[in-house]
Amino acid sequence: MKLTVKDMDIATGDVPVVILNEKDAAFLDLHHGDRLTVQKNSRKTTAIIDIGESDKAVAQGQIGLFEEVLDALYAKQGDTVTIKYARKPLSLEYVRKKLDGKELTYKEIYDIIRDIGDNKLTDIELTSYVTANYITGMSDEEITNLTKAMTLTGTQLRIAKKPVVDLHCIGGVPGNRTTMIVVPILIAAGLTVPKTSSRAITSPAGTADTMEVLCPVSLPISKLYQILDKVGGFIVWGGSVNLAPADDRIIKVEHPLNIDAEGQMLASIMAKKASVSATHLLMDIPVGKGTKIDNRKQAAHLQGHFERLGNELGIKVKTIITEGSEPIGNGIGPVLEARDCIWVLTNDSRAPQDLREKSLEMAATLLEFSGKVKKGQGMQTAIKILNSGEAYKKFADMVKAQGGKDIDASALKPESIQFTYVAPKAGIVTTLNNSSIAKIARMAGAPVDQGAGIFLHRHCSDHVRKGEPIMTIYSRSREKLNYALESLKELDGIIVQ
């Protein structure tokens, strides 16, 4: 059947969608969620059907194309296209198998992940797969196969110079920007560190959001190879280089459902490490109230899984279980966290010591674990590289290579609208709840507003007098600041006793 194109001027962001008039759909016996192959000349694509219930949206004889379909066909308003019914992906049979609680083979998992990465599954179909994994769980073999499938269906960086060192924190601790300090220390020591990082999902800033304050983090693969040759490492947003692309769609589904299936989380992390040819990986699992992991038993359980999965993938994995009961550093939010990192790298007296110390411990561990220095010499080497300014020079080189300008810490200023929360009484700060601090900073506008967030004047165990500042909230607008203050009252995440 031939139909005339109507440009809907709408993009879904991933899944290709077309709209049919309800009379055309009835004539062809097509329904919401069915697939169509749409062809213009030699180009064709498969899209999901939506149905307009009146001629106002799409008239009879027309087909409404969303931007993804228009781009795939090089089509425009008024063009003629041919449509054919397309079968639903075979991978949906495997999704149903998983819903029944059965174990999937490598081929079945690969087909599902390939179709997710190619945007061939609707949100409902994808949600069914994610929910099935969450409810029925995954065997060790399924987790391994999922990791391999995620790796092979995305871009892979082939790096000849070994060892290739990587690090990852499972998250949950605001301000924990150790990556931006550890990576330049390791590069200055002569290691190769292709660091791909995430953007914030529920936090006030991901490493990619913070790095983006200083330079671009969305770069083509060809540019990344150039930076590796010139500098020895980079810090970029993983989503921009198509590493394990199915994972990004899965995370989008998990977020509103507030679920994080263990097998999915393990595969998500390890697939991205395998995609950059990592040979040595340091996993940081913070433990504490308000983090993703609230007890050491659970952390030890994850440690075993990461190390087993590393063995399957040929990656040496070392796990550290760290204290995560409160935010690390003083700044919470992209600009404030970037400033903390620059202060640490330049040995500024304003540098938060907890961030400096944790970064040095991680760098020291990786220097020894990778075999770059002998056991017992890691901390001495890391301190020397940081104190001498070598790490900062490498960081500045990296920022420039990624398209940034000269770093000026004095220009990293938070938003001007602010409120300072003071101690309601004299005592000791006993609680700075991670999830509460993160929520307040996000309500203030972080990470979308780079200068929004929180500056912590005090940390847990600090003595305070009545009226002394504990934290300052920064926001771009009075309205957002008011949202943050409402969260401050409701969450009760700061306690002085």
List keywords for this structure.
Barwin-like endoglucanases; Pyrimidine Nucleoside Phosphorylase, Chain A, domain 2; 18 strands; 4 domains; four-stranded antiparallel β-sheet; 497 residues; six-stranded mixed beta barrel; globular; 42% helix; 20% strand; 18 helices; alpha/beta; Transferase, Pyrimidine Nucleoside Phosphorylase, Chain A, domain 3
How do the helices and strands line up, and which of them pair or pack?
Elements: E1 2-7, E2 17-21, H1 22-27, E3 35-40, E4 43-52, E5 62-65, H2 67-73, E6 80-86, H3 91-99, H4 106-117, H5 123-136, H6 140-152, E7 165-169, H7 179-188, E8 193-197, H8 207-211, H9 221-230, E9 233-237, H10 245-257, H11 262-275, E10 280-287, H12 296-313, E11 316-323, E12 331-332, H13 334-345, H14 353-369, H15 378-388, H16 390-401, E13 417-422, E14 427-432, H17 434-443, E15 453-456, E16 463-464, E17 469-475, H18 478-491, E18 494-496
Parallel strand pairs: 1-5, 2-4, 7-10, 8-9, 10-11
Antiparallel strand pairs: 1-6, 2-5, 3-4, 3-6, 12-15, 13-17, 14-16, 14-18, 15-17
Helix pairs in contact: 3-4, 3-5, 4-6, 4-10, 5-10, 6-11, 6-12, 7-14, 7-16, 14-15, 17-18
